Amino acid sequence: PDKTVYCMLEDQDGQIWLGTGQGIVRIKGDELLAFEKGDFRLAVRMRSALTDHEGNMWFGTDGGGVFKLTKGVFETYNRAAGMSSSIAKSFLEDDEGRIWISTYDQGISILNGEDFSFLNQQQDLGGNDISYSLEDSKGNFWFCFYENGLTKLDNGTISRFEARDGLVSNTVYCLAESPKGDMWIGTNQGI
User: Fold this and answer.
1) To the nearest 10°, the Cα dihedral for 57, 85, 126, 160?
2) CB count, 10 Å around CB of 26?
3) Edge-to-edge strands, sheet with 5-10
4) Do the beta carbons of residue 44 and residue 4 sit within 8 Å?
5) Nearest C-alpha neighbor of 104 from the set 145, 59, 49, 134
6) What is the mean pLDDT of each run of 10 residues along the chain (191 residues)?
7) Measured between alpha carbons, how far is 179 from 191 in angstroms, rounded to an integer?
8) Are 124 and 165 within 8 A, CB to CB?
9) How many CB atoms lie within 10 A of CB 79?
10) pTM score above 0.85
């Protein structure tokens, strides 16, 4: 398997799953199982991962869409299945069980059961080039952009933050919430 690891998660059985540049690798004890060349759909770069409240695992790719693993079976979501893009950069699961898929080039695809809805620059999201997403302790959704700063979605109200508002840079890669509720913003120019 590829040695470059882009994302990882632990399943309910304590197994570690790695998203690599060439697919998914499962570590169970001392055993490695690679899902890559044997399954052509999975032979793509995995960029993000999520375990939902039902224990399903989600893997986002650079062009292959999203793979959902449920009880050993992979299901694919991509443009053909209704997603806005096949490049998935990060995931959120909200308290209603919807999966928010942040894409590199087409905003957010929100999966509710089998149906998609979308949030993007046309709804003043701030951009379509999302690098990371986070739900904070108050239930607000935050979206980081490669070129357009940061957007907060608070119960339907969108607030945008850019360098002119005090951010160090408009290139925001990641975000973390402190135990006190402060937001730490990682950019290409520091925090």
Assistant:
1) -10
2) 16
3) 5-10, 16-20, 23-28, 31-35
4) no
5) 145
6) 87 90 88 69 81 94 91 89 93 94 94 94 88 94 94 94 96 96 95 92
7) 17
8) no
9) 13
10) yes
Answer for the pair 187, 167: CB distance below 8 angstroms, yes or no. Answer: yes
Question: According to the model, what pLDDT value does residue 126 have?
Answer: 85
DSSP string computed for 152-189: EEETTEEEEE-GGGT-S-S-EEEEEE-TTSPEEEEETT
Cα gap 93→96, rounded to integer Å:
8
Task: Say which amino acid occupies 60.
Answer: G
Q: How far is CA 156 from CA 2, 83, 94, 123, in A?
A: 41, 21, 14, 11
Going by their DSSP bridges, the two strands 16-20 and 108-112 should be labelled as: unpaired
